[in-house]
Amino acid sequence: MKSISELALHWLKRHPEALTSGERNVLQSTMDRRPVSRDTNEAYERHLSVGDRMADSIARIGGSWRFIMGFCLFLAVWALSNIWLARDAFDPYPFIFLNLLLSMLAAIQAPVIMMSQNRQAEHDRIDATHDYEVNLKSEIEIMALHDKLDQLRNDQLVTILARIERLAEDIRRLESRRTPRAAD
Questions:
Q1: Percent of the chain residues past pLDDT 90, beyond the cut
Q2: 147 and 94, same structural domain?
Q3: Which pLDDT value is given to residue 74?
Q4: Are residues 49 and 76 located together in one domain of the fold?
Q5: Cα(125)–Cα(131) distance, rounded to whole angstroms?
Q6: Which domain holds residue 134?
Q7: Residue 145 pLDDT more than 90?
Q8: φ/ψ of residue 170, rounded to 5
């Protein structure tokens, strides 16, 4: 059984000190014959706080067509009701209170969406790292299979050559036995 150092030099053509922890994990899993694939979503979801989940929900709702259409409907109702009420309107044209509410909503919603996007970017980095590890393990396994096939082919060639040599020797012996009889 080879060590991680030997595998690093053989498969990755790198010194063991230059390996990342993920590459070490891949080589160890190759030695142990265990998979490196895992559900990154499950691990990611376990580490989310309540605030993270809430921010993701707000971003998911705030970025949907349902929210946009509902908000457009709300703005239309607000504007039409204040125009219809005219002098008794609670927010007469130019709708200063509505502008205040929209500004506060934007001031809260933008950072929440950015928090969600940052977490998504981190999740994407985790996925990319995992994909790299799985691809690296696949490449190593394929190279190992090629080595095994090459060794098997070489072993078979050695066996075939040994048989040919034995047959050639047998033919030489038979010919050497026949040659003196032909002279008689």
A1: 55
A2: yes
A3: 95
A4: yes
A5: 10
A6: 35-183
A7: yes
A8: -65, -40
